């Protein structure tokens, strides 16, 4: 997998001699997903597409979050991207304390806030994860492979500074939730109509 795809910080690419090419790839990025069977209407993730095109560079330069572009090693086309940052997570006590083994697993990295009845911890946040569905992409990446590259970067951070929790928020969409669940994430809360999912690493 790592021979087929490579990830780069967006700011490194934009500050390089490849900036014109990279800006063109970003401009042509599409989040419009069509099911393989064609039985469902096309779905567009405006948040994923808008963030890459309008906010990813500035957020990275301000260290609010760091966006990484995933390029094909064959022709350097943009296959997808992900954005990572560090953010506090509040996990409802009922989730952590559903069993003694679960409590030992999560409480190791979180402290109990009695006033709010939650466990709080510093965590890695996958702020964005987006696959390029543009028809121009010749060597598409699978969602599993894109998430694997993202998680490998999270574990690089873990090797340097420690920590043991990664989380994300996604729309309450059965396809998305099933995808993350298959990749080790579990739902722990719903906030502002977004499903919050977490994984111990």
Description of the structure:
The model has no long low-confidence stretch (mean pLDDT 93). By secondary structure, this protein is α+β, with helices and mostly antiparallel strands. It is globular and about 50 Å long. Strands 1, 4, 5, 6, 7, 8, 9 and 10 form an eight-stranded mixed beta sheet that branches. Strands 2-3 form a two-stranded antiparallel sheet. 27% of the residues are buried. The longest helix is centred in the last third of the chain and has 19 residues. The two termini are 21 Å apart.
What structural keywords apply?
201 residues; alpha+beta; eight-stranded mixed β-sheet; two-stranded antiparallel sheet; 10 strands; 35% helix; globular
Low-confidence stretches: none
SS-derived structural category:
alpha+beta
Radius of gyration, Cα only, in angstroms? 18 Å
Give the % helix.
25-40%
The total count of strands amounts to: 10
Main sheet characteristics: 8 strands, mixed
Helix-strand pattern: EHHEEHEEHHEEHEHEE
Rounded mean pLDDT is 93
Q: Beta-sheet strand percentage?
A: 25-35%
- Helix segment tally: 7
